[in-house]
Specification:
Layout: E1 2-3, E2 17-18, H1 22-33, E3 38-41, E4 44-47, E5 52-55, E6 62-64, H2 93-97, H3 102-111, H4 126-143, H5 147-158, H6 165-177, H7 181-192, H8 199-203, H9 206-217, H10 239-250
Antiparallel strand pairs: 1-2, 3-4, 4-5, 5-6
Helix pairs in contact: 1-5, 3-9, 4-5, 4-9
């Protein structure tokens, strides 16, 4: 954890601590296991000996860090899941697109795959898809200043490429569940689908994020579609968005 109150060296300010992301913690623990004195992260470096993190741009900007053992119950919420969603779709995506998202359709076209060519059925595709997914994650991470996180995620996926589709899918599901830039970017892009003004945005991510999404979408374990399930998501909506969703509920077609 890192000390996050405005002035970490103040004697009068209440002390506040913030968690590193899940992926940052994985990077940190790997470096500690290798007995390295410092750990490079995106934007800053941790000095284990002096128990501080300092900015990569200005070494004088430092904050204390500490290592703690977290309880299973200490599972801080991913706040982005409850943040205001700026895009209100004009219609229900499920009723319009059915089982296959237009994003997945475009991914298959971009990769030159036939309709029946999916990772679960065509296992010879897996190494190629894994490598393209890894490269796409790295490219997206570098674009937003998360190169170290991206490299870690990509390498974790690459390790699984010769272990079969089930292990690859489990890895993709695990990576998506981690606190990192990846799930935030994927959620952001998926929310653009169905909004004509943002179609160019999600289409621009087909090449980079598409292979990972295809691997995650083609679930080889849960083969039977589940129905009659309730999915809850907390979000702050404007009056206009509420009206849109009410209209969609009344006229889902």
């Amino acid at each position: 954890m890192w000390q996050s109150n405005p002035n970490p060296w103040s004697k009068s300010e209440p002390v506040e601590w913030s968690h590193y992301s899940d992926v940052e913690n994985l990077i940190i623990e790997e470096v500690l296991a290798n007995k390295q004195p410092k750990c490079m992260l995106d934007g800053y470096c941790i000095d284990f000996k002096h128990k501080v993190q300092f900015s990569n741009a200005d070494a004088n900007k430092q904050r204390p860090v500490k290592r703690v053992v977290r309880n299973r119950e200490d599972n801080h919420l991913r706040q982005e899941l409850f943040m205001f969603d700026p895009i209100a779709p004009l219609h229900s995506l499920g009723s319009t697109y059915g089982w296959v998202s237009p994003f997945i359709v475009e991914v298959r076209i971009d990769l030159g795959l036939r309709r029946e060519q999916l990772p679960f059925k065509s296992t010879d595709l897996i190494p190629m898809l894994v490598e393209k997914a890894a490269q796409g994650i790295i490219e997206e991470g570098r674009h937003i200043g998360k190169a170290y996180e991206a490299e870690k995620l990509a390498n974790m996926l690459r390790v699984q490429q010769d272990k079969g589709i089930e292990e690859v899918w489990k890895c993709c599901a695990y990576l998506y569940s981690l606190e990192s830039f990846l799930y935030k970017k994927l959620n952001e892009i998926m929310r653009f689908i169905g909004s004509e003004g943002y179609e160019h945005v999600w289409r621009s991510k087909v090449r980079t994020l598409g292979p990972f999404c295809l691997l995650l979408w083609d679930d080889p374990i849960n083969k039977q579609m589940k129905t009659n399930m309730k999915l809850y998501r907390g979000v702050n909506l404007t009056d206009e968005q509420l009206a849109t969703y009410e209209r969609m509920a009344k006229f889902p077609g």
